[in-house]
C-alpha cells in the first residue's frame, strides 16, 4: 500500500465514490454537479494534501519533542506496545484506538462552543456526497492530530500500519458521506454508514442534537447512548439551525469562526 502516496490514494478513493454515486445514488434528485461541489473539491485538495502536509509536519515535530521529553522522564516504555507485532495486529489496534479518540474529539467539537464555531463549517453541508467528507476547517486537523498523537506515542509500531489505517479511514469517511444507496446490514452496529451518518447532519433536534459521532465505527455511539437511526426515513433537511449565517465560499468560511457571533 505504501508505494502510493496519500494524495494518490485520496484521488483514487474520490474517483471511486464519484463513480459509485452515478451508478447507485441514494438521492436520485440530487444533481452530481450540486451547488458547493467546487467549493468542497477545493477543501479536498487543501485539507487532504496542502495543509495536511504542513499540519502533519508541525504536529509531528511537537509529538517528537513530547516523546523525547517523556522518555527522559522515564514515562515512556523502552519499546512500544506494538513493536514486533504483526501488521494486522498493529493496524487493528491503531484503528480501534484512534477511532475511539476521534469519537471523543468529535464530541468536543459539538459540545464546546468555541470548537463548535469551527465545526459548523462541516455542518453547513446541505446536499451530502463524498466530497463533503473533506469540508472542514483546518483548525480541526490541529485539534484531532494534537489529541491523537500523544496517546499513540505509547503504541510504537510501524509507520506502514498507521498509513494503512489513514487510507482506510479516508475510504470509510468518503463512504459515510457518499450519496450511495448501499446498506451494510448488521455490520451497521459496528461500522458507520451513509444512512446512519446522514442523521448526524440532521438540521433538526429530532433524537437530540448530540447523535452519531462515529467516524469509522458506530460501535461507540451504541455503547455510549449517542446512536440515533430511524431505519425507514432520512432527515428532512441537512445543516444546523440558523445555518444561513454561513458564507458560501471557502475563504470566507475559513474566516467565519473568528468573525461570527457564537451560537448553537
Topology at a glance:
Blueprint: H1 6-23, H2 37-72, H3 87-111, H4 113-123, H5 138-153, H6 159-177, H7 194-200, H8 219-224, H9 250-259
Helix pairs in contact: 1-6, 2-5, 3-4, 3-5, 3-6, 4-9
| Span of the ends, CA to CA | 42 Å
Structural class: mainly alpha
Task: Provide the residue-averaged pLDDT.
Answer: 89
| Count of alpha/pi helices | 9
Order of helices and strands: HHHHHHHHH
Verbal overview:
- The chain is mostly helical.
- It is built from 9 helices and no strands.
- It has helices at 6-23, 37-72, 87-111, 113-123, 138-153, 159-177, 194-200, 219-224, 250-259.
- Helix 1 (6-23) packs parallel to helix 6, helix 3 packs across helix 6 (159-177) and helix 4 (113-123) packs antiparallel against helix 9 (250-259).
- It is globular and about 55 Å long.
What is the structure about, briefly put?
The chain is mostly helical and 264 residues long.
Keywords:
264 residues, single chain, 56% helix, 9 helices, mainly alpha
